[in-house]
Write a structure and sequence with these properties.
Elements: H1 11-15, H2 36-59, H3 68-81, H4 85-90
Length: 93
């Protein structure tokens, strides 16, 4: 989508951006020319901390580590089929 976003902890902290007590959501439409540089640094930080990290975590989902229940279930299946556990582990069940 390409839209930079930031999740802020607390509505009061977000309210300081718009000089209010609290704010639930802030969308920036127009930016003064003297504030363009600050906005550019904010956008680059937002992309680095949220957008790019989301893609990293999405690709690295799971760890291939089985829990106790699934391990016991697979061992039971291997035992029923007559194979040894080490041979079944090599063929990745």
């Amino acid at each position: 989508m390409g839209v930079p976003y930031v999740i802020v902890k607390g509505k009061a902290r977000l309210g300081t951006v718009v000089h209010k007590k609290i704010a639930a959501v802030v969308a920036l439409q127009d930016v003064k020319s003297e504030d363009q540089r600050e906005l550019a640094t904010l956008v680059s930080a937002a992309k680095a901390n949220f957008s790019d990290k989301y893609e990293e975590h999405r690709r690295q989902w799971g760890g291939g580590i089985r829990g106790n229940k699934s391990t016991a279930k697979l061992r039971k299946r291997v035992k029923a089929s007559g194979q040894t556990v080490s041979a079944a582990a090599v063929t990745k069940l």
